[in-house]
Amino acid sequence: MYEKEEEMLNESKKQLEQIEVPELQIDEAIQQGMLKAKRKRRKHKKTLWTISVAAILMLSFITSIQVSPAFANAVASIPGMERFVDLIQFDKGLEAIIENDYYESVGVNQVKDNMTLTIDGVILDETGMEIFYTLEAKSNIEKIKFENVDVLNDGNSLSDNASTSYGYAHQEKTNRIEEKISFTFQETKQFTSKQFELILQIENDKQTTFKIPFTLKNKIQQGKIYTLNREVEMDGQKMVVKNIILYPLRVAVKIAFDGQNDMEILQFEDMRIEDENGEVWSSIQNGTSGFGGVGNKERTYFLQSNYFKQPKELYLKFDKVQALSKEESYLLVDFSKKEILKQPSDRKMEVIDVGSNSIELKYHPLRKNHMYSLFSQGENAKGEVVDIPTESNWGDEEEQHTKITVDTKDIINPVKIDFVAYPNYLDGSISIQIK
Fold first, then answer.
1. Any bridge partners for residue 196, and if so which?
2. Percent over 70 (pLDDT), the chain
3. CA-CA 20 to 30 A from 141: which of 67, 204, 348, 394?
4. Of the ranges 13-17, 84-88, 98-102, 358-362, which one carries the lowest mean pLDDT score?
5. How many whole angstroms separate alpha carbon 197 and alpha carbon 45?
6. What is the pTM (predicted TM-score) of this model?
7. Band of the pLDDT at 361, cuts 50, 70, 90?
8. What is the residue-wise DSSP string for 114-183?
């Protein structure tokens, strides 16, 4: 029953012996084989002692990853665990999901055109789905492209009214990719069936379409709703924190903005939830994400979740809020003349080049180790949407550059391009008790 795990474990032990890691940490890393077997939910009975030991090992495993880079590297050498090392180090929500067995192992695969696609595991709640997958081939697949990604539930597409993201970052092996596909639903979903089908269309010399049915067994945890309707004011700008809903995958914070505000609220750089001890319990990871952009009176912001913890008190806090005067919250561009007709007067950003359908700017970085998208779309002289198909970012700690191109077929001058991020901040900070 454990032949595969034992084979992987023995191979991993050989790799670990080549790494200079304290002896205790090596022993803990080897125990990962037991943890992986545990997550497969074997049907045979387990004694209370076995379950207790496995729980202790899981906690030690996660804690060691967070506090010891050497141990994290050791665990990352174990097949299939690289993604969890990366994610656990930066996402407390995933840590809690794994601790509480809400990550569900699937292990189904399909072979097509000398490639094998395996659904390793899934996390599902009312706000989205995370699919962890492995793609293996006999040849190099570094340059593959995903042409279509979808999941069907009883024949209905989950990608409708949802944002989809996927990645296949640089891997050590050119014929193996271990990554995840993320679906974030614009509205919460209720599932009457746990029958799903992953559809993945890949372009690699030729087009290959995988269709893999899978069934989930875990109970889908419902959101914990905190209704607040608290009006707050920051630097003269009014907003109402309407509610906060906790889900296993994310925390949703809904905020309504007063139409009489004279400034456009852009990014919340440091929105977070803290407990009674001041520990950051949920925070923005890699910038603000959510639904509803600049100009929307109501927006939903997503934070990392820690759904499974039960602190006595919770507080929503935020500061470092980006904002611009509504009169200066955009660029007005004449691409035919290659001129900027209007821009923010504080000149915290400098336009250094305007092309026939492009703009390049430079500015001091808004946030350390993070590159914001400055724009999402524009509007032409007829009030029609102007798409921005590409945005490139580069620079260092001293100076950041952004270059965008707009779709030439949409250009009717002048074109108005709203900022969605800008290095100008409101004064003050907000703290609201949730529970």
1. 153, 214
2. 74
3. 394
4. 13-17
5. 30
6. 0.74
7. very high
8. TEEEEEEEEEEETTEEEEEEEEEESS--TT-EEEEEEEEETTEESSTTEEEEE-----SSTTEEEEEEEE
> In this structure, what are the phi and psi dihedrals at residue 332, rounded to the nearest 5 degrees?
-115, 120
Residue 273: per-residue pLDDT: 93
Using one digit for the tens of pLDDT, what is the confidence trace for 200-231?
Answer: 999 988 899 999 999 999 999 999 999 999 99
Q: Please say if the pLDDT value at position 148 is more than 60.
A: yes
Give domain limits for the chain.
Answer: 3-90, 104-215, 224-325+425-433, 326-419
Given this chain, do its domains 104-215 and 224-325+425-433 carry the same CATH topology? yes
3-class DSSP state of 368 = coil
User: Residue 411: which H helix or E strand, with range?
Assistant: none
Distance between CA 293 and CA 289 in Å, rounded? 10
Distance CA(351)–CA(363), nearest Å, equals: 9
Q: What CA–CA distance (Å, rounded) separates 315 from 283?
A: 12
Identify the CA nearest to 202 among candidates 152, 162, 143.
Answer: 143
Q: How far is the C-alpha of 302 from the C-alpha of 188, rounded, in Å?
A: 13
Quick one: pLDDT band at residue 337, thresholds 50, 70, 90? very high
The letter for the amino acid at 309 is: K
Peptide bond into 414 cis (omega under 30): yes
Distance CA(128)–CA(165), nearest Å, equals: 11
- Write out the two tokens for 424: 């100008």
Predicted confidence (pLDDT) per residue in 254-291, tens digit: 999 999 999 999 989 889 999 999 988 887 654 446 66
Report DSSP letters for 378-410, one per residue.
Answer: EE-TTS-EEE--EEEEEE-SS-EEEEEE--GGG
Residue 181 has pLDDT above 70, yes or no: yes
Q: How many CB atoms lie within 10 A of CB 127?
A: 24
Alpha carbon dihedral 276, 278, 279, 284, in 10-degree steps, equals 110
Which CATH number is associated with domain 224-325+425-433?
Answer: 2.60.40
> Are the CB atoms for 234 and 321 separated by under 8 Å?
yes
The CATH fold assigned to 104-215 is Immunoglobulin-like (2.60.40)
Secondary structure element (H or E) that encloses residue 23, with its range: helix 23-30
